[in-house]
Amino acid sequence: MPNIDDIMKAAQGVQAEMAKAQAKLDTLEVEGASGGGMVKVRATAKGRILGLDIDPSLLNPNDKDMLEDLLVAAFNDARAKADAVGTAEMVKLTAGMPLPPGFKF
């Protein structure tokens, strides 16, 4: 049975790995899209927005409502992909760790 010092050292190791994983998430990029790719949002896996691309055909004042809807959809798509990448990275990090059922970081 491990003693408290071993447990504390293991916890510090996990904490260091978590910090590395969090830093890595800010370097991984995802792209969300809507309108068949007419609106694209680039973001990091932490959700930081890096760029936005709008097809010029959407820049019509009469289509303002549609463009707004497409922007929201593209941002939400990017956020969902960022969450998925983040979860996948955390699963890699915690693989083999004896965590209680349902425990999430």
Automatic annotation (TrEMBL):
<dbReference type="InterPro" id="IPR004401">
    <property type="entry name" value="YbaB/EbfC"/>
</dbReference>
<dbReference type="GO" id="GO:0005829">
    <property type="term" value="C:cytosol"/>
</dbReference>
<feature type="coiled-coil region">
    <location>
        <begin position="4"/>
        <end position="31"/>
    </location>
</feature>
<comment type="similarity">
    <text>Belongs to the YbaB/EbfC family.</text>
</comment>
<protein>
    <recommendedName>
        <fullName>Nucleoid-associated protein EUV02_02670</fullName>
    </recommendedName>
</protein>
<keyword id="KW-0238">DNA-binding</keyword>
<dbReference type="GO" id="GO:0043590">
    <property type="term" value="C:bacterial nucleoid"/>
</dbReference>
<dbReference type="InterPro" id="IPR036894">
    <property type="entry name" value="YbaB-like_sf"/>
</dbReference>
<comment type="function">
    <text>Binds to DNA and alters its conformation. May be involved in regulation of gene expression, nucleoid organization and DNA protection.</text>
</comment>
<comment type="subunit">
    <text>Homodimer.</text>
</comment>
<keyword id="KW-0963">Cytoplasm</keyword>
<dbReference type="GO" id="GO:0003677">
    <property type="term" value="F:DNA binding"/>
</dbReference>
<dbReference type="Pfam" id="PF02575">
    <property type="entry name" value="YbaB_DNA_bd"/>
</dbReference>
<keyword id="KW-0175">Coiled coil</keyword>
